[in-house]
Amino acid sequence: MEIAMLKESELEDSLNNTVRPALEQCKTAGYMDPAHQIYSGLPLPKLEELGRLHYVCYDVHEFQKLNIPGASKQFHGAIVVSHGFSEFAAKYEELAWYFLLAGFSVCILEHRGHGYSPRDVDNINYVYIDDWHRYVADLAKFARTIGREYAQGCKLSLFAHSMGGGIAAAMMERYPKLIDRAVLSSPMIAPNTGAPNWLAATLCGLADDLGQGKRRAPGQHDFEPEINMKHNPGCSVARIQWFQDLRKADTHYQTCAATNSWVKNAVMLSHAILQPKRIQAMQTPILMFQAGHDLWVQNVAQNKFKSMMDERHRDIELDRIPQSAHEIFSMPNNTYALYLKRILRYLQSSEKVSVLE
């Protein structure tokens, strides 16, 4: 297969006039009942309104009927996408396009508190979760049901970014036979809270205990329509602008502020991932990408995770991209193309892959 990257100079036009119409031809959007129990069988805490989780899937068999030049004619299974903090399914349309071209169906769950999934808070900007186990259990249920359905007996792979990478790591530790192969892109093995994580978790946890869990955490802010490229060093301006335009056009995509409960649970999730007995239970082969200019998650925690996996002879590879910002899929084509080629060659070995900048 020969995959051509979208030209940055024509990105908006290509996404609107080529990618999105093709995706609509193979797209299914739906809702899933959330999980009710964690990996051990213990029930999750009750919520006032459980709601249903939103997802978007793309069927590669329908996509292949479009006869897109360079697209694979083979079927390599399905990829479940676990997105990052304050993200949403539509942000992954370009990456889904490349995965479809490579012969994979794509299944994207919008985590609780994101996109069109239930929020549990009134403010559209806030991201809240009551218990990190809920993220993990919901993703596991989605992979076990929707993901496996789209894999059709073939491999079920995983692409997980940032917060979604932390959720995915914890999930694979607790559901070790669920995913066949995984890519963790700048995973949140530990968040960068702007303070020592123990202090952030203590202060936000105290606020949560005092009934302020749904309040905005210190240092967080509401959605701002203007782009601040200082938060995206070296990124493709065209991609950052596209993401921001999506957010401006739909209030469901304007989440940006962590609540006290989210901060507390993000740090608890980090500790849960790095438990030796959980890492020992890991069976899924992992390719982990690390961004050299990451402002949002801790590289040192990723290194610790890699070291603990190595010590227990778990299957993990680490690719560090020194020039990259946190969102490697938002970088210019000269970085994105190498990243994409590495991902596709890792997830399948039966077909030669070339990626053209």
UniProtKB/TrEMBL annotation:
InterPro entries: AB_hydrolase_fold (IPR029058), Hydrolase_4 (IPR022742), MAG_DAG_Lipase (IPR051044). It holds the Pfam family Hydrolase_4. Its EC number is 3.1.1.5. It is an enzyme of class 3 (hydrolase). Residues 76-329 form the Serine aminopeptidase S33 domain. Keywords: Hydrolase. One of its GO terms (molecular function) is phosphatidylcholine lysophospholipase activity. Gene3D superfamilies: alpha/beta hydrolase (3.40.50.1820). This is Lysophospholipase L2. It comes from Bifidobacterium magnum.
